[in-house]
Amino acid sequence: MRKMDIDLAAPSLRRAVYRTPRIARVAALAALCLLPVVAVATVKYVDALRRYELLAASLHARQQSPAPLQTAARVPQVTPERAAAINAAVMQLNLPWRGLHDAVAAATPPAIALLALDPDARKRVLHITAETRNSDDMIACVEQMQAQEWFVAVVLTRHEINDQDPNHPIRFQLDAQWRQP
Question: 24-49 burial string, b = 16+ CB within 10 Å, else e?
Answer without folding.
Answer: eeeeeeeeeeeeeeeeeeeeeeeeee
